[in-house]
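Bench log. Compound arrived from synthesis this morning; before running ITC I wanted a structural hypothesis for how calcium ion sits in the protein. Inputs:
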Amino acid sequence: MMKQEKIVGFQLKNASLCAALLALSACGGSDSINPVKLNTLDGKPAMVVAHRGASGYIPEETVEAYAKAIEMGADAIEPDVISTKDGVLIARHDPNLAYSTDVASHPEFAARKRTVNVDGEVQEGWFASDFTLAEIKTLGGTSTDAERPQQFNGKYKIATIQEIVDMIKKSGRTITIYPETKNPTFHRQLGLPLEDKLLALLSAAGWNDASAPVFIQSFEPGSLKYIRSKGSKLKLVQLIDADDVDLKTGTLTFAAPYDRPYDWALAGDKRLFSAMVTPAGLAEIKSYADGIGPWKRYIVSVKGTVGTDGKVADVNGDGKVNEADAVTLPATTLVSDAHKAGLFVHPYTFRNEKRRLASDYKGDPKAEYKHFYALGVDGLFSDFADTALQARSDYFKEIGYNN
Ligand SMILES: [Ca+2]
């Protein structure tokens, strides 16, 4: 035994020898007892990111939505980051408060309604940059999806990024914060830049190096490059969007403002987001970021059935044509291509609604998660973190992985 213990002591520092001795269960850590090796970039389980909090159940990006996601056991919680008039960072997907709050039913703010160009899209509404935090705290969050619970509309307040950090600290466990700099050029043009404030806030929480439980994401490369230029070692994630899938062919479609990053559009860069998933695009991303957050259809696309009328058929006969009438196509090589480039892969967004699930999954959202876990994704964004966690647990049981 003595000899074996000495070997154990040595091989803890030697990963390859440790791997060779796996059968002896002699190595420390969970890797040692696993005959199954995960095909993620670092060999660790995929991270479940609660997209906008527990947004499948509670109005997104409210204090309660994040509390619920933490209670579910999500590995990470995701806020979109925008700025108030007084420069406070709050969690909201859109600068336009009409989209996700009850601002329209507040007569005291009626006069603030106006038309604003957001990243080339003309929008009418009430804009966070016209409101102080105190004013925004009088609003209630509302559901952004008519199929989801509506009974909480107006009841819960918009979370600040600081409140989310405080909730994480209070939770007593390691939870990753996964903020997205939202419309960063738009905010810079308003004189309310996001990046320095976000870095200062995270640094004050003690999070300022690569090992911190922080991933910062953006669709605009310029925002991530700026953060890197400030010397930040936090993990950075390039988001990769598209407009939609053409169900006739399964190919991705591109239309403004979802065709290219807004900073590329302003600079006259004509490349589409799809340029980012080529080997050259991935290598470029690796020069300023640590991973990618692609729309999941870059990894597994879906294709419908074209009827004799030349239109995509309503295969399940529910009167609507959507992804539930489509089948998945073979996976692309994006996960392995990104891994080869040294980038992790966190696709978005996974949801439970049957109309969003390809017919292969037979209405079971867990089947979709398992499909992506098996492809080696390093994490994923879900509106229903509880389902994603359950699917991961089921998947590990199925493949014999001891988590
Ligand atoms: Ca249908």
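What the model suggests: The first helix runs from residue 2 to 11. The pocket of calcium ion is lined by residues 314, 316, 318, 320-322, 324-325 (CB under 6 Å).
ITC booked for Thursday regardless.
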